[in-house]
Specification:
Structural class: alpha+beta
Order of helices and strands: EEEEHEEEHHEEHEHEEEEEHEEEEEE
CATH class of the largest domain: Alpha Beta
Number of strands: 21
Helix content: 10-25%
Number of domains: 2
CATH topology of the largest domain: D-amino Acid Aminotransferase, Chain A, domain 1
Largest sheet: 6 strands, mixed
Distance between the termini: 34 Å
Radius of gyration: 22 Å
Number of helices: 6
Shape: elongated
Strand content: 25-35%
């Protein structure tokens, strides 16, 4: 039976553009780090949309049960699917939930159950709310979700700039990404960058320990592989940088050739990049990006680059880092984790009551 809602799937979520500072005069929310999803519910029918408009419904059976039990009979709600732990958000565990095997999906739904953080309302009953101002949508969302319990949660909101600035500083310690600012009078505009996001950005000096070739050819650099030394003096793989103009990619290839070495003389036999702690073999591909070769060209770890990054997840950069400048004045051995700013630990349950606490 087809859904009969005033807003039907697929819908591409409303987006945000990055700004350097939290703007005044907005409505502010924490920026959650998970899978963006619009939930469509029409009675017993439930669908979880995603950023690429592909349904994610089958991967989160525990959330289907919660939506059916707690959300209004007919509604369309925008939010974020997260996995919350006592130590903060766990994006690695969330990625593992996207698995082709039904038996594995069911097992993980019990081992690493997900939560849904609601933050916008597109439809309720027969009413389309997308053309209404955010303040009206938020008020209706609060009414619709009054009394919900874990794993469904309503994100906190404030119009106080000082509170938003405190959230930006404190909530990172729980694994959150920053702050979202929404125009109070703004309509819900799918796939339009009409909100604002303010994310943490820092710099780090890293060792360039290898590169991957670009898809355009074997003499073009696709990405540079970055390393940091741990307390034991071991060079860890921490991420990549790859946003270079094509001409610069070709130049980098020729600049780096004198540093090319063999794996026998390299600190990484095969980097554990994008494959967890297990060491990938030559020609192996990533489960998250079919066809992506995890092999790389090893370089003597002699060159240092300063990069911009948002935050760490474990010992690695959570997102792809951005090139800032070369640092010929820095020695590779000085590129350690000690240079990184450590956010103050913050409990998820202090942000949303009950989130990340044992059920």
């Amino acid at each position: 039976m087809a859904m009969k809602l005033p807003v039907l799937p697929p819908v591409s979520p409303m987006l945000a553009k990055s700004v350097a500072a939290i703007p005044p005069g907005a409505s502010y929310e924490p920026k959650w780090d998970g899978f963006r999803s619009i939930i469509f519910r029409d009675g017993a029918e439930v669908e979880f949309g995603s950023r690429n408009e592909r349904p994610m419904t089958r991967y989160f059976p525990e959330l289907i049960e919660a939506v059916t039990a707690q959300l209004p009979e007919r509604c369309v709600i925008d939010g974020e699917i997260v996995i919350a732990t006592g130590n903060g958000l766990d994006f690695d565990a969330l990625q593992q939930r996207i698995h082709p095997a039904e038996s594995r999906v069911r097992l993980l739904s019990k081992q690493t159950p997900a939560s849904f953080i609601a933050f916008d309302l597109l439809a309720l009953g027969d009413q389309d709310y997308t053309g209404r101002p955010f303040t009206e949508r938020r008020a209706a969302l609060e009414g619709a979700l009054a009394g919900v319990t874990a794993p469904i949660h309503l994100t906190p909101v404030t119009t106080d700039l000082e509170v938003a600035q405190r959230w930006f500083s404190e909530f990172e310690g729980a694994g959150l990404d920053g702050v979202i600012a929404k125009p109070p009078a703004g309509r819900y505009e799918p796939d339009k960058r009409v909100m604002f996001k303010i994310k943490h950005e820092r710099t780090a000096d890293c060792v360039v320990a290898g590169y991957r070739v670009h898809k355009s050819g074997p003499d073009v650099v696709g990405s540079l592989m970055l390393g940091l030394y741990n307390d034991a003096g071991v060079l860890n793989s921490v991420g990549v940088i790859g946003a270079f103009p094509m001409q610069r990619r070709r130049e980098l290839f020729h600049e780096l050739q004198p540093l090319v070495t063999s794996f026998d003389e390299h600190p990484w036999n095969w980097a554990a990049h994008e494959a967890g702690e297990r060491t990938p073999r030559k020609g192996e591909t990533s489960r998250w990006n079919a066809g992506k070769d995890l092999s790389f060209v090893p370089l003597r770890p002699e060159r240092v680059v300063e990069v911009r990054y948002e935050h760490m997840e474990g010992v690695r950069f959570r997102h792809t880092a951005q090139f800032n400048r070369w640092r010929p004045d820095r020695t590779p051995r000085s590129c350690t984790y000690e240079q990184l700013e450590q956010p103050v630990t913050f409990r998820l349950s202090d942000i949303v009551a009950g989130l990340g606490e044992p059920s």
